[in-house]
Amino acid sequence: MTVTTPSKSILKRGALIAGAATLGIGLAAGLADGALKLNHNAFAQPIQLSGVQTQLPSFADMVDKVKPAVVSVRVKTQSVASNDEDGQGSLDDLPPGLRRFFGEQGQQRGGRPQPRQGMSQGSGFFVSQDGYVVTNNHVVQNAVEVQLVTDDGKTLAAKVIGTDPRTDLALLKVTDGGNYPFVQLASGKPRIGDWVLAVGNPFGLGGTVTAGIVSAQGRDIGSGPYDDFLQIDAAVNRGNSGGPTFNQKGEVVGVNTAIFSPSGGNVGIAFAVPAATVEQVVAALKKDGTVSRGFIGVQIQPVTTEVADAIGLKDAHGALVASAEKNGPAAKAGVKRGDTITAVNGEKVTDARDLSRKIAKFAPGTKTTITVWRDGKERELSFEVGRQPAA
């Protein structure tokens, strides 16, 4: 990328002025000699930019369609605060610079631990006609009362159906029946570079729309074992938590959950839970109020190029087993320390995190197989998926 400083711009402008002056002198001399004939048509020709599309897209029609399904979420909270808590909720579980964007007020500090009451604000969106709403877990954490404010200003009481801290998702339900506008979750992943639109409640303003593109996929921000975030550059800030990110079809491709911000302000790096994850979690919360994930019972490490060379793998992939939990599903199947798990049900495991995500998708009790690399050979082992312990 070339950065043009003001001094360089001035120099370029000066060169153009000087060039124009030289041209003027030449024209004057030519006219005086009668030797220069001007072709006025040559100066009237428009500049043609072949293959360049200069018209930017308008999101107005799509905004009219989806905005009524997006709500502001207002939560009264109560929790027991320790002396050293700073009232930032789940901010502490993220690496430096990463923030989940909502605020609490009314903390009580000093003295013995005591109940702390506060308020938080976020965003959400209807996913069904009968009033189910998706938002972030950290927005409704420790909630004692939840209200939703619709795009037309109506206030609706809601209850928490279930939460999933591991993906930072929560499912709410409007307590009164009704016919609510809702949006669909996208069936596929967006491409890097696709236009997206974020709608939410930044700083409590409500009904705010920002646009950008998908910057990256599969981001691991260190918030949990199942990180698989979309990165977007649409402006999101405190209060956007739980709000949707739409594609140009008006489908939800992600739920905004965190921003990278050393200063606390927007710097154009935001992270959203992908729609595929949202769909799985919402279905489980709607059915059981909780999410049950598969469990294999191993401590795993990445397979580096050096490790792959040492154990005879053609390329670096899979998950190296550091230990197998005694009487766990993997140990019962015969998995040993030093094994490398390279596939699950025949599907290649790219890395350690990929193994965690693959196993988590299985319902506890599911019969499955894993492929392990041991002593220069592949082995197929069958096992019954266990239940992931509570967070």
TrEMBL record:
GO terms for molecular function: serine-type endopeptidase activity. One of its GO terms (biological process) is proteolysis. PROSITE patterns: PDZ (PS50106). Residues 282-351 form the PDZ domain. Residues 78-122 are annotated as: Disordered. InterPro entries: PDZ, PDZ_sf, Peptidase_S1_PA, Peptidase_S1C. The keyword Hydrolase applies. It holds the Pfam family Trypsin_2. Residues 99-118 have a biased composition (Low complexity). It comes from the Bacteria. One of its GO terms (cellular component) is periplasmic space. Its EC number is 3.4.21.107. Belongs to the peptidase S1C family. This is Probable periplasmic serine endoprotease DegP-like. The lineage of its organism: Bacteria, Pseudomonadati, Pseudomonadota, Alphaproteobacteria, Hyphomicrobiales.
